[in-house]
Design goal:
Two copies of one chain form a homodimer.
Chain A: E1 4-11, E2 15-17, H1 31-44, H2 47-52, H3 62-73, E3 74-80, H4 81-91, E4 100-104, E5 112-113, E6 119-123, H5 127-137, E7 142-147, H6 149-157, E8 163-169, E9 171-172, E10 177-178, E11 190-200, E12 206-217
Chain lengths: ~220, ~220
């Protein structure tokens, strides 16, 4: 059965990149890129990530297995507009997805078909529609929310996310773009409950997978008495 | 050799309590308490926590072992003033620490000696002094920063923390008091690096222990090429 999943590399303090680059100067020299590079570094050393980028070598380790599993489980992707724009040039003619990608955007654009099975369909009627279109295209496999963090948060907020896997890099950034921030729209006496379903430790990164249970009120208890 | 350690229960989004209670109305009815109760609930069900509070029963499980280990490793504690004030009544005549506690405060106060080995010494000349006094009193065991979160952050910021263990409850609170927030004083191109040394999974909580490596500049990399 198709699940809607998301996985994202974050720092121990929950940032998936440094402070948002404002468009002045090159992104690569920005604090945003420096934070992003740090939290995703573990992946660039993994064979399975490199193979998808057309790069040889890398480690064949548990991190590589987790990346391979993640790509393998996805029958279609949902992606934010900013990530799609930022990836368009670096991903080149054969992007790493090898599956249909549905980009949530306000700007209509013709569907783009790339080599290797990747296509980009631009969806202008919202996140729920993009998830529904991806579900229909996933052929029974999972719908993966590819990112960025803002889109993952929107899908979680809308109650559409079934599974969230965080790859927690052992670093405190102190500032940046945070996956789980105030935009979740929770009131102070309410939370989103999850259930950890898999924890994989590694010196470079801790992988924690959660099933999303859903919103629930916060309650008091007797403190064991 | 004495290490300076801290351990704290936090939500998946890094909060150790709900939004700070401002003093109007009872703390127990506040959003702060509701968040705090949710992230610390796992501990109240553990036998080792209950035993320290004088409550029978509870589970003898891995969570209980981790609590027992944490109490057992501490030769002295450093504590924030707000936590010490908040605990004074509920901890009663025999507080759970059974060791000297050094409270960081601006208000001078006579040392308080309780039953069972717990004493409270009020330190008015700063965090570093409190840590040094606790180190001298720890008898070769560890100095544990008991909390609250604000004091843990100050100790981390000052470069005085050797080990940080987070007990990550599987819940997103969305708002509240965050352990790792902007007060860390990191610039945008700098981070605090850590090394994960132990990960213990449990359905109620994920325990992740880190050795604190220290501040380091954020760098770019070749992305595997």
């Amino acid at each position: 059965m198709t699940k809607v999943t998301a996985q994202l590399s974050v720092s121990l303090d929950g940032f998936y990149a440094g402070p948002r680059h404002d468009g002045n100067g090159d992104w690569i020299t920005s604090a945003e890129s420096h934070g992003f590079y740090r939290v995703t570094r573990w992946a660039t050393e993994a064979m399975a990530w490199r193979e998808r980028q057309g790069i040889t070598g890398g480690r064949r380790d548990v991190n590589s297995e987790i990346i391979a599993e993640s790509f393998g489980a996805a029958g279609a992707y949902v992606m934010g507009r900013r990530m799609a724009d930022g990836g368009e040039v670096p991903w080149g003619d054969e992007p790493p997805f090898r599956a249909p990608v549905f980009v949530v955007t306000h700007r209509p654009r013709e569907r783009v078909v790339r080599q290797g099975g990747t296509s980009f369909t631009y969806v202008t009627d919202g996140v729920a529609s993009a998830v529904a279109q991806a579900r229909a295209a996933a052929g029974g496999k999972d719908v993966a929310v590819a990112g960025g963090g803002s889109l993952v948060r929107q899908v979680l907020r809308a109650g559409l996310l079934d599974e969230l896997e965080l790859h927690v890099a052992p670093v405190v950034l102190g500032t940046g773009m945070r996956l789980l921030d105030a935009d979740l729209g929770l009131d102070e006496f309410e939370a989103i409950e999850l259930t950890p379903t898999r924890v994989v430790p590694d010196p470079q990164v801790t992988h924690i997978r959660y099933a999303v249970t859903g919103r629930a009120p916060l309650t008091l208890d007797s403190r064991g008495r």
